[in-house]
Design a protein that fits this description.
It contains 11 helices and 8 strands. Helix 6 (about 240-270) runs antiparallel to helix 7, helix 6 (about 240-270) packs antiparallel against helix 10 and helix 8 packs antiparallel against helix 10. Strands 1, 2, 3, 4, 5, 6, 7 and 8 form an 8-stranded mixed β-sheet that branches. By secondary structure, the chain is of the alpha+beta class. It folds into 3 domains: about 15-120, Butyryl-Coa Dehydrogenase, subunit A, domain 1; about 125-230, Beta Barrel (Butyryl-CoA Dehydrogenase, subunit A, domain 2), CATH 2.40.110.10; about 240-385, Butyryl-CoA Dehydrogenase, subunit A, domain 3 (Up-down Bundle). Keywords: FAD, Flavoprotein, Oxidoreductase.
Length: about 375
């Protein structure tokens, strides 16, 4: 996982990000309403090289570090948060490919594919029987040896970006009494893969997080890119956790900022006849906007500090970083909830974007690890330190 910005990297211009943000915002409500996947957004991202943002310049990418990547995610999320969520998965995998774990030719191949044709990749982990792997247990998805390769069978849930994935990192186990667990790199167009369009969520409706069914899917032997005994997956990776929390935090904070801005415009322009002045002149609305801004200021400071420490090579311990996820996403939800409460029916009507922002920001609670796991880990760590 990259820990510092690449000195040869040229930051993505504000003009490019504004163009993408504004273009994505024009279709975000339509994609949300229809739960349709925004393929056109990823064509635009590829046009500007942003699907290869975290790939090194010498490999054809843009070489963005965590600070730049967080900035890009936040701006894209202001246009269409579902697009930003798919983008995060791409960034995390390309920033985190470990040289000593992946076969070199596979690492170079997916990097080249991302650069040349905008190929996307995501790790598919959640299963009906297992739930999220962060709570422990072995996956039901199984890889069996077949000559010089593997045959993969399983069922994955909440597979973000599934309609557009060129590669799927499938979390599975090997057959036998002493199974190894890890990732198998499966091309998305492999025979035996079926996408069931089950995603009908309250928020992030355009993320294409459908079910993926694998039935005896054949892959080469070296596409088992990282297999370990189950206990070997229990180690802490503080840098990877910091990247995950920084990017998800940037996404949901950006959604909350959009909710905040809509509320401010509403209060400035709404002039009730019995008041004869904008709602923004009322103490109650001024106090509410101050509370919202305090929550988002807290988020900004926490995210900036996390990014700074990580890029300096000293990320916080994973348990502490996960507490930041709990705080930042909680602040984002609370900020939008305050705006919804203050605006009443206008805030909840689907003709206004605040209702969509509220549904989207609530999805922050679903990302593993969930709040109960985060707080339990923090409490267990705290008791051990005393």
């Amino acid at each position: 996982m990259a820990t510092a910005p690449n000195l040869s990297h040229t930051p993505v211009s504000d003009e490019i990000l504004a163009t993408l943000r504004e273009g994505f915002a024009k279709t975000a409500a339509e994609h949300d309403r229809d739960a349709s996947f925004p393929f056109e957004n990823f064509s635009a991202l590829h046009e500007y090289g942003l699907l290869a943002l975290t790939i090194a310049p010498e490999k054809g990418g843009l070489g963005g570090g965590l600070s730049e990547t967080s900035r890009v995610v936040a701006e894209i999320a202001k246009g269409d948060p579902s697009t930003a969520l798919v983008l995060i998965m791409q960034y995390l995998i390309h920033a985190g490919v470990e040289k000593d774990r992946w076969p070199g030719h596979l690492r170079r191949h997916i990097e080249a594919e991302a650069v040349s044709r905008g190929a996307l990749v995501n790790a598919l982990r959640v299963e009906p029987e297992l739930g999220t792997p962060s709570r422990g247990g072995l996956p039901v998805t199984t890889a069996r040896r077949d000559g010089d390769g593997w045959r993969i069978s399983g069922h994955k849930l909440f597979s973000t970006g599934s309609p557009i994935l060129s590669y799927m990192l499938i979390w599975g186990r090997t057959e036998g009494d002493d199974p190894h667990v890890g990732h198998f790199l499966v091309p998305g167009n492999s025979p035996g893969i079926r996408i069931e369009e089950t995603w009908n969520h309250a928020g992030m409706r355009a993320s294409g997080s459908h079910d993926v069914i694998l039935e005896d899917v054949a892959i080469p032997f070296d596409h088992a890119v990282d297999l370990r005994r189950p206990a070997e997956w229990n180690g802490e990776n503080s840098v990877q956790t910091a990247w995950m929390v920084s990017l998800l935090g940037s996404l949901y904070d950006a959604v909350a900022q959009q909710g905040r801005d809509w509320f401010a415009r509403f209060a400035r322009t709404r002039v009730p006849s019995n008041l004869g002045a904008p709602l923004s002149t009322l103490y109650r609305y001024q106090e509410l906007l101050g509370r919202i801004d305090a929550l988002l200021l807290n988020n900004r400071i926490l995210l900036q500090d996390l990014v700074r420490r990580t890029e300096a090579g000293a990320p916080p311990p994973a348990s502490e970083t996960l507490l930041l996820k709990y705080i930042i996403t909680g602040n984002a939800i609370d900020a939008v909830a305050l705006a919804v409460e203050a605006t009443g029916n206008p805030g909840l009507t689907r003709n206004n974007p605040l209702e969509r922002h509220y549904r989207d920001v609530l999805c922050s609670r679903a990302h593993a690890p969930q709040n109960d796991s985060i707080l339990t880990l923090a409490g267990r760590t705290g008791f051990h330190q005393d």
